[in-house]
Amino acid sequence: MGVVVVGLVGRLRTGTGSWVGRSTGPSRQVAQQVVDRAGGGCEICGVAEAQQIHHRTPRGMGGSRDPAINMPANLIHICAGCHVRVESKRVQAEGNGHLVRRSQGPSEAPILRRGVWVLLDDEGGWMSCPGSS
Question: Is the pTM higher than 0.85?
Fold first, then answer.
């Protein structure tokens, strides 16, 4: 399965007054790791086909220069319906680890993935949380 990275492009004004864009999304390699981890299914519900890559710690307006923002532990491959729910029910999403505050590293923040609490790593993998069932 190929990966199409559809990241937002931040627009910056140069000293000459012209606009240039910069990619604010993950590299193709990182996006592929996230897609491979998901195996085609949504990493939240596990039912629908995954279509979008979601940042657990949001990039912010205009993107972020923090490289951790686009690492696999901060990214999940999810369906459009779950993405809408995460963005519209942010308190619930935070409680489920689908959103992570900047003060907490995504690789240390448990996430409810397909009904099981796990930790995501920056190599594109995951492991069960100690004490979870």
Answer: no
